[in-house]
Design a protein that fits this description.
By secondary structure, the chain is an alpha+beta fold. The chain has helices spanning 5-8, 26-39, 99-115, 117-122, 203-214, and strands spanning 13-17, 43-46, 50-54, 60-65, 75-80, 87-95, 133-134, 140-145, 148-153, 158-162, 178-184, 193-198, 219-222, 236-239, 267-268.
Length: 269
């Protein structure tokens, strides 16, 4: 049977900068959650418009709600000490969050839960204090004023914000338990995406999403994940050359094989 030329052709890859504007559709988020279920031992329950994924210990829930897209958080990660207990911590995701950030968040959550569930659920072993982040001063500006602190991108399109529970600043999204808020809101686009995390969210999860957002390097992505047109004018895309092909196996009749185609960043609290 002849080979399919499309199958042999390598997928095109691109670099997108800045990475916090490499937006992804909520349908991509759900697709990633489907893959997450296949690759882990977590349980899935599918409704008419929702996908609910629960950890084997039944204490962590990830809910994706298609009807919430454009109206509020469409992916909500929450933790309880048991199925019937009150919510201990929560992370809300809304808008066109880059798929790489969602993958980093889910991967960190699953790995940490498997390694140290008490740390993830109860915060046992977590060191109190501020989150330590490495920030490129050429890409982000630090601020600390009016009860809020954090970093804002040089282009003004994105921010990583910390609001302590005792802050005099108004609650984020009207919820005083939200202590970290990451968002992208370009002036010409408006709200693009945001993540809100409540007070007891594990520091390792906060660090994972903040580090992914603050990273000054462009994100590497296959073109199989399309970039929404609304952000195309705001990003720089560099197309990568296709990988060189290795020599093929020895062809029939003993002919020769075909030749292949030819800042150090400061630590900031």
């Amino acid at each position: 049977m002849p080979n399919d030329p499309d199958q042999d052709r390598p997928r095109e890859e691109i670099l997108i900068s800045p990475r916090y504007l490499a937006a992804s559709l909520p349908t991509d988020h759900q697709l990633l959650l489907d893959i997450f279920v296949e690759e882990t031992a977590w349980n899935a329950d599918t409704g008419a418009s929702t996908l609910t994924v629960t950890s084997p210990c039944r204490r962590i829930t990830i809910r994706h709600d298609q009807t919430a897209v454009g109206r509020g958080p469409h992916m909500v990660i929450s933790a309880r000490t048991d199925e019937e207990a009150a919510e201990r911590w929560r992370a809300d995701i809304s808008g066109l969050l880059p798929i790489e950030c969602v993958a980093r968040l889910l991967g960190t959550l699953a790995a940490e839960l498997a390694t140290d569930p008490d740390h993830v659920v109860y915060g046992i072993g977590a060191e109190p204090g501020l989150l330590e982040l490495y920030v490129d001063p050429d890409s982000w500006t630090h601020f600390d004023d009016f009860g809020l602190s954090g970093f804002i991108s040089r282009d003004g399109h994105a921010a990583v914000v910390n609001r302590p529970v005792d802050s005099s600043a108004p609650p984020i999204h009207g919820d005083a338990s939200v202590t970290w808020h990451l968002a992208a809101s370009p002036e010409d686009v408006g709200h693009l995406w945001d993540i809100s995390c409540t007070e007891k969210t594990p520091p390792l999860l906060l660090h994972a999403v903040a580090a992914e957002t603050l990273d000054p390097r462009p994100t590497l992505r296959s073109t199989s994940f399309p970039l929404p047109g609304v952000v195309a004018p705001l990003v720089t895309i560099e197309r990568l050359p296709p990988p060189s092909r290795r020599p093929t196996a020895q062809p029939p009749h003993g002919g020769p094989p075909r030749s292949p185609e030819l800042n150090h960043t400061p630590k900031t609290r």
